[in-house]
Each structure stands twice: as structure tokens, then as C-alpha cells.
Task: structure prediction
Amino acid sequence: MTQKKIIITLIVLTCLISIDVFASPNKIRANISSQAPVSLHPHDSGTELITNYINQIFDTLMYIDSSGNLKPGLASEWKQVDTKNYVFELRKNVKFHNGEKFNADSVVFTIQKLLDPKEKIDNRFYWGPISGVKKTDEYKVLITLSQPDSLLPYRLATAGHILPPNYHKEVGRAIFARKPIGTGPYRFVKRDSNQNIILKANPQYWNGKPDIDNVELFSSSSIDEAVDKLVEGDLDFVSMVPGHYTKELAKKKNVKTNKAIVNNSAILMLNTKKNGILRNPLVRKALRIGLNMNHIIKYGYSGNGKVTKTLTHENELFHPIQVKEYEFDLIKAKELLIKAGIEKNKEISVLAIKPLDMVGKIVFEQLKELGFSPKIYYGTAEDEKKAILY
Result:
């Protein structure tokens, strides 16, 4: 029997620094990912970073604002008729980028594609409760469930990007993935020779034409490369920059730094797959209270972040309010390790992923303070993936 791997979250904080050089009001060159998506089809969107591209081109029936509230998107209103039926009133006078009309047929086609096993969608489980979708008039749709699902509106808001039926049928999924068409604020123009994605503002966008006419989405292999390009003037905007970059960037006269708490958590994962000490809950609790989270934020992230009790923060959907707060307590942590039978100078290894080298060093020193004999390894995101999966 294959033993499952459990990942325990210890450190949770949210931090985002976006940096921009004052750019032309008609064009912005932005780095939003370390890798350009192979496909721009919404049904191939499996990660948050790819969704950042998709959301520029496509719309959903609803969207979730920064406070975690549902807001009208392509659906002007909706209601839950009973535990298994939702009715959606659709926005009128909306067109796809190719001029195709958005209506109930668009929604029915999209939902049917999401449910079709032939589509090979990775997150089909997401739509499991849906048993049927029906057009009741040109701008009204009924979605029926096989079982109650209060999360349906949120699922539609995060992953239910609406497709144009006629164009999708005409070109097929493969071509659509290379030449996508949606109703979103920007229309796809092309990929350049470096696979950067070129977008142009949608002048007929239902929620108002975007302020910036032209957008080029770049993909740099690392944050260091992206920041260097920014400082040199080859980029106007870089997103998801770790907080510890702020001190150096603040010295640059042509760079403006904006900070915001976002739905992005930094975590310390514990490998409990092997028959090691981390399988002992006393050891895990000792690490949770014996590692100083505020210290890590202060020195590892230059103060850019905050400690949270869970992977979510207070504005996220279903954030648990009544969750026990674990305060830093080095003495109690050492007592728990003694109770767990962990001898002094027990070896423990840490994998630190660039560009979080400093965070890795801080964790290393704190583990020594707890009485461990830590070993630290520096690696890439690919090394992290292997460590998690294997």
C-alpha cells in the first residue's frame, strides 16, 4: 500500500510588492509570470499564474472583489431557486472580440464543455455537482445540480470563463488555445518571437474601455531577471515581487514601489512521507510554536507581510474566524521535543527555494536554537516540486 504524503503548513504570511516605472499611458510592458502559458484556453488554466493571463481575455458570470464578495460579471443578477437550481440573468449588449453575440447559448456551450469527458479538463471535479444546464430564454440560464452546492457561484466566478460557441466550433480547441477570443477587457493580438503575449484594449468592453491601450505580458525566468529588466527600462511593471527586494529598489529614482496584502501565502511544508520525526504531531507543534514567524517576516521579508492563522486571510471566502492562535514559545517548544523523545542535535534538512535564500537561513538558525542539527539545501522551484511529489 502506497503511503500518502501529508503537507503541514507552518509559516503563513501574505506579501506582494508590485514595482513599476512610470510608463506611457498607452502601453505597458508587464512581467506577471516566470513562464508563459503554453495554452490560452481557459480549460487548460490550472494555476493562478496562468489565470492572470486568462482573466485579461475572458470574463466569468461573476467575479470576486478584493473583499471576497461576489460581484456581477456577465451575469447581471442570479438567484438560488432551491437547493439544486440556480437561475442567472445575463448581461445584454455584450459581444466577443470577434463580434459574436454573448447570450444564453454561450453559457450553455461553456458549461457543457466543462462537463464533457472528451475535453480532458484537469479540474473536472470542480464541476461535479452540476447535472445540467438549460437556456430558458435568450438571456436567462438555469443550472441544475445533482446535490446542493453553495459554492457554485464562487466556482463560476473563479474558473467559469465563457467561450464563444461559433468561433470555438469553427476553429477547434487546439487553434482556440493559440488564438483565444473572449469578452474580456483585452483582446489577444499575437505572441512575439520570444513568446511574450501582446494584448490590445477592447473598446466595446461592457465594463468600460481599459485606460491602457496596449499591454505586453513578459515571462522572465526569475524575479532577479525581471527586476533587472525593470530597472534598465525594459519593463514597466513586475508583479509578485518578494518583500525583501524593497530596500534596494527604494534607492532607484525611476522605480515606484506599491505594496498590498494579497491572497498569496508563504508556507513551510513538512515532509511526513518518510518514517521520520515529522510524522510525530508533537514535533510538528513544537516547530509551529518554536519558529518565530514575526522574526522571519521582519528579517526575511523586510517587514513586508503578516502572520496569519491559516492559508487564507480575513477577506477570503470561508476564512475561519475562530481558529486557535499559536504564539511563539521557545521554552514550550523544547519541552514538546523532549516529550516526543527527540534527542539534542537531531538532524533535520531544509530546502530553501530561490529567491528566499535569506528566509531559509533564518529558519536554519531558528532550528539550531530549538536544539536541532539542521542541514540546508538551496534549490529551484523544480527541486521543490520533486520534494513535494516524491
About this structure: The first strand starts at residue 7 and ends at 9.
